[in-house]
Amino acid sequence: MNIRHDLRFLLVWPTFLLLLLTGCWSNLEIEDLGIVSGLALDIATESPIEEELKKQGGGYSKKDLITSTYQIATPPSSEQASKGGGSNQKPYKNISETGDSLIQSVREISLRRDAPPIGHHLKVIVINEELVRLYSLEQLLDFPLRDNDFRPSCLVLISKGLASKTLESNDTTEIPAFRLIGIVDNEYRTSRILPPLSLAKLTSKMQSGSSFLLQNVISSSGEVKFAGAAVIEGKTKMLLGFLNEEELDGLTWLTGKGKGGLVKTFDVETKQPILYEIESMKSKIIPHVKGSNISFDVNIESEGRISENWVTSEKTPEKTFIKKAEKSTEDEINRLVNLVIKKMQEDYQVDVAGFGNQLRIKNPKLWENIKMDWDKTFSEVQIKSTVNITITDYGTSEISR
Predict the structure, then answer these.
(1) What are phi and psi for residue 85, nearest 5 degrees?
(2) Where are the alpha helices (DSSP H) in 102-175?
(3) Could you tell me if residue 74 is inside a domain?
(4) 347 is in which domain, residue-wise?
């Protein structure tokens, strides 16, 4: 009797498990989903369909303030996939809507597509510079920050020119939003890419009241490039201006947050270039307080290698060449650092390098008294930088020729 009972149990239990493993009965095919990979925000420009609606007396009550462009991934259909590709159809579609509310714009797109956009997989938000001069980041990003559909890991960039153009590409095999994320990952190759700033990190930046930077991207004819950084004023959360590529380079040396890159110098006698490749970088900002006077020392250290050397006309002893290359590299880094310090203190009067944070750590009582007007105080403090470069490798070529 026990054996029969055990056999029945063994037969019934797998059947019961099969009922629990029937899969997602309410699932939708990926082709039927409007998966948004990128979002671009620009000054209002009406699309042809919106212009036609106005002619016909249609539309809804709104102010034309912002044009939001949603990049929707369009994976190949099963039929296309079975044919092995070869199609010229791009794997994405950009859809724009103009209005004064981002969430209302999303809902309006639901009147134009059978697959309304969903933001669960949004990778990047690009905001046009003119828009951030008119409205604060708090206003522009209120909807993405409130809505649970948007991942807090989504990155935020600023664009010179139309943000929607950064979501276009001539390559029929790539999704432009993914391309932008891929460029961010190249920070180990260059010192001109900022550490990525996600929605989650951006929230804490805005709440701190301190000024900060966002990566700038430019676009032309389907191509994009990271070129400098946007300076966001801490109190207003609006755009002040930009750091160019050299100034961003200098800021990376100031903060010591670079993961790689190059420094190009020129030999004094031959005027030929020498390229120093960064293997490690660190910086220490040291605050000094004497009475009411505040000053800073910045000690920068780096180890690296000579990756390219065009000086071929003279025979220089190895040690002499290395010392000369180290000195010229130090001078160039000092130039870049002083360039960005001047920009911060004189042009914009904001601290985007973290000097205030170091002062807060060393002298918290003083910081409490001056933090509300720190940017103005920072513009008047003295900053001295010291750079120490060590060349540990010069490749396989002989230096003495």
Answers:
(1) 80, -150
(2) 102-109, 129-134, 137-140, 142-146
(3) yes
(4) 249-393
Give the per-residue pLDDT at 21: 59
Contact 325, 274 (CB under 8 A): yes
Of all helices (H) and strands (E), which one includes residue 56?
A: none
Averaged pLDDT in 10-residue chunks for the chain of 401 residues: 59 62 54 81 77 64 86 71 63 91 87 80 95 95 88 94 95 93 94 94 92 96 95 96 97 96 92 95 96 95 94 75 94 97 96 96 94 93 97 68 36
Looking at the structure, do residues 320 and 348 belong to the same domain, yes or no? yes
Q: What is the DSSP secondary-structure string of 235-293?
A: TT-SEEEEE-HHHHHHHHHHHT-----EEEEE-TTT--EEEEEEEEEEEEEEEEEETTE
Question: 341 with 365, same domain?
Answer: yes
Q: Which two tokens stand for residue 357?
A: 């944070």
pLDDT of residue 50: 63
pLDDT at 401: 36
Q: In what order do the strands lie in the sheet with 262-266?
A: 262-266, 273-290, 293-309, 382-393
- What the block records as the tokens of 210 is 């301190």
**What span, in angstroms and rounded, lies between the C-alpha atoms of 227 and 217?**
6
Same domain, 202 and 344: no
Identify which of 49, 241, 67, 48 has the alpha carbon closest to the alpha carbon of residue 164: 67
The CATH number of residue 312's host domain is 3.30.300.210
Q: What is the pTM of this model?
A: 0.85
Q: Does 264 reside within a domain?
A: yes
How many domains are contained in the chain? 2
Domain membership flag for residue 229: yes
Same domain, 147 and 267: no
Is residue 19 situated within a structural domain? no
| CA pair distance 236, 139, nearest whole angstrom | 11
Shared domain for 290 and 165, answered yes or no, is no
Sole residue written with tokens 């002083």: 338
